[in-house]
Write a structure and sequence with these properties.
This protein is about 25% helix and about 30% strand. It is of the alpha+beta class. The protein has two domains: about 5-140, Aminopeptidase; about 175-365, Aminopeptidase (3-Layer(aba) Sandwich), CATH 3.40.630. The strands form three sheets. The protein has a seven-stranded mixed beta sheet. Strand 3 and strand 4 form a beta hairpin. The longest helix is centred in the last third of the chain and has 18 residues, at about 320-340. The chain is globular, with a radius of gyration of 23 Å.
Length: about 400
């Protein structure tokens, strides 16, 4: 029930019936208050775009009214199987105890995102009703944990999930965003960048990063997705690539790897509410950059019109020069984004990730602390030697699934 006995019905999203109503709620929620700078997201007519590439997903809408029905809220959720950050040792038949290798411990986890309630219908329990109904579906489909991501200063969202829905603060990764300049950037001549085949990329990720927290068991589906533009490996110049097996057995002293996801074909972003002075300053930097490209001026792209982005995921590497290798990969990704007409390149990494030092970013466009909250959906699971994931300490790295960015 809603205010004054008005019935609020939560049901599955129907694209033909609900698209215009959903877009209206999104618009009212994201434009922000008058006179303030805000980030608007255009989902290109596909409200499920950020979850539809996951193994299982659902979108719900909250509808109010009897005769003239109105969409007043929505929520999205998806389910996948990931590494929960715990590692168990396993020995081979002829192995000694000290040569046991850690193996991933997988769990079925849900991700809730895109919770919206129309500003005119807040404080009526609609958000709580949407979350509760979504969690019912998650439990029915076997999810053991559920997590959400929100801005650390979004007090309304944090209050709803932590105080009313039983979530606890879990991880605080950083979203690092770098603009795409009008000029190409130089990549170190000491670094050779190799585009891996999907099979080689999968082999590398499974053998080196499968125990990283939130690593998806279906990494092959991610890498084979049409939105994945490739996996790129940085190695010293002169290192001969002879396949993933040879690389695993005898890697170079230092190396780094990233994969690139094309968000531009999923949604567009736009900064609204910026003053005419800021717009003119940004335009001036682009004009100077085009006229005098040799200056390598860090120009501000056209962010006040719809722009696309590329997302970097699966960051990893080893060795004393891995940070430099990562920087070379990020500049390579910048040039790829420029060729494809993107406005920014973004990634999300653990706040403790050593390789973040090699990721170029602008602080004004980035988020130092993206808060992830988590909840255990049931208490009837056998903990065994794994324990309760919600109480585990953070590791150095975290795997951010591009399908949900």
């Amino acid at each position: 029930m809603g205010e004054e006995g008005v019935i609020v019905v939560v049901r599955e999203f129907d694209h033909e019936k609900d698209l215009l109503g959903v877009e209206d709620v999104e618009r009212r929620c994201e434009v922000g208050s008058s006179g303030k700078v805000s980030l608007f997201t255009d989902l290109l007519g596909d409200p499920i775009c950020r979850v539809r590439h996951s193994p299982a997903f659902l979108m719900l809408v909250a509808e109010m009214g009897t005769e003239e029905k109105e969409i007043v809220g929505m929520i999205r959720g998806c389910i996948k199987t990931v590494t929960c950050g715990k590692k168990l040792s396993r020995k081979g038949k002829n192995s000694h105890q000290n040569s046991a290798k850690p193996v991933p411990v997988y769990t079925k986890v849900a991700y809730i995102l895109g919770l919206r309630v129309s500003p005119s219908h807040r404080r009526m329990g609609i958000g709580l009703k949407l979350v509760s109904r979504m969690e019912e579906w998650l439990i029915e489909n076997g999810a053991e944990y559920s997590y959400i991501a929100t801005d650390s200063d979004n007090l309304g969202s944090i209050r709803l999930f932590t105080y009313k829905c039983g979530y606890s603060k879990f991880r605080t990764p950083s979203i690092l965003v770098n603009p795409v300049f009008a000029h190409r950037v130089s990549v170190s001549h000491r670094v050779n960048i190799i585009k891996l085949t999907v099979s080689d990329a999968e082999c590398l990720y499974r053998r080196r990063f499968s125990t990283t927290e939130f690593f998806p068991r279906d990494i092959d589906s991610v890498l084979n997705n049409k939105l994945s533009l490739g996996t790129f490996l940085a190695v010293p110049v002169g290192f001969a690539w002879k396949g993933s097996d040879r690389f695993m057995s005898a890697p170079p002293e230092s190396w780094a790897v990233i994969s690139v996801w094309n968000c531009k074909d999923v949604f567009k972003l736009e900064i609204r509410g910026a003053s005419s002075v800021k717009r003119m300053l940004a335009k001036t930097t682009r004009i100077v950059d085009r006229a005098l490209p040799w200056l390598r001026l860090p120009s501000i792209p056209e962010l006040f019109r719809p722009f696309g982005l590329h997302f970097l995921y699966g960051l990893g590497g080893e060795g004393p020069h891995a940070v430099k290798m990562m920087k070379a990969l990020c500049w390579f990704a910048h040039n790829l984004a420029k060729e494809r007409g993107c406005g920014v390149v973004a990634t999300e990494v653990s706040s403790r990730e050593p390789l973040r030092l090699g990721v170029p970013y602008w602080r004004t466009l980035s988020c130092d602390e993206d808060l992830w909250c988590i909840k255990r959906l049931g208490e009837d699971y056998s903990d065994g030697s794994v324990g309760d994931w919600t109480k585990s300490p953070p590791g150095l790295s975290i795997f951010v699934d591009p399908r949900e960015f």
